[in-house]
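Researcher: Next sequence.
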Amino acid sequence: MSAHLNATQMNRLDWFAQTVYTTIRLFVKNELHNHAGATAFYFLLSAAPLVLLLTYAAQYLAQLAETSVPAVLLLAALYEQFRLNELAELGVIPRSAQLAAGGVGLLTLVLSSRGLVKAVKSAFHVIFPEESKRPFVLNWMLPLIIIPVVLGLVLLAVVVQASLNFFASVDLLGEGRGALLKSLNTLLALLAVWGLLYLALRRLPLSHPPRRPTLVVSALATLTLAGLFFGFELFFRVEKYQSVYGALGGVVFILIGAYFACMAFYFWAQFLYALSKVDVAALEKLFLGGHGKGANRLESLVFARANRLLAKYGRNYAPGETLIAEGDSGQEAFFIYAGQVAVYKRVADGEKHLTDMEEGSLLGEMAYLLGEARTASIRARTEVTALVLPPGMLEELMRYSAPLSRRIIGSLAQRLMHMNRTAGG
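Model: Next structure:
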């Protein structure tokens, strides 16, 4: 029992290490740091007019606050929730705004939001590769849908903050209401971000990821963003940027923060994709000899053990046992991990032995690729351990790895050549 638990734990550790390695490799390959930079830039362009609209709202509430208590609460919530005083001190927003600039700000918001959506979609296109495309009308309408959603979330955040402030002011929360108020506000903010990230990770990919992994990854992304937010407050000082960049120091500070936030978001999006491809990545390394051309020592170490794949796909065959029967309609692919098999073909007077195949051979791929019945029988000559891959996994492997695709095509060509020579002889 203890040995079984240890083996299970080792398999889980292998799975985690391979998933993280695959995520980092794809993150670098897809150049997501460049996508993060573009997204952060469009985010800044989108945030500026949005904050300008918040300034208009603050000015309007300030006028109403002279005669309305709810307006006072909403105004305080607006300043506290979005730290308008700090943004004004950083020079990101003006102390007051002229309404004449509203049209320009709204137009900038629409155009920059479209750029932001396109930047995110471009990143997701390389993270979650898909040949199909969204309808043209939906591409144009998506930014117009997102803007009201963002404004609605802003309004909801302000109303919730005002309600919590009201409960605290009338002493409905009892002792420690300040700490409880802050905790509730933080919790609601985290839940809102979690929901937004879940919708983005779930709906933006054309092939929607499974719901449960998406919920978990969205939660991890939310915690990462929260850690970045508080880390910036603790270890970074905007004054340093202002001393270097002058009046633009606050903007540069926010842009850098947005860049790291986008990097974290795209990392977890890539992690979500890697969850579905970790078996494919491990099988690729195994099929290419465990290392493959250009593999480094870390990669060889991470993918050194095949125990996890054997536990999931492995099957043992005794000598003489049939792996594949000629004429069968099955489409599984077989990778000979250990042992030796023999290939037989029906002839008029029985069966003809065509060839033997050693460990490291991939079998059964022709039936899947051609969509036909098995063209030969394969039996174990010795004790055989094989990985039995379900239909579709071979296509995933070929789509994921160009070197593996070339090897499969090459082995098929050699096999057909050998069968023709044998038939001709």
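Model: The two ends are 56 Å apart (CA to CA). Residues 306-424 form a domain with the Jelly Rolls fold (CATH 2.60.120.10).
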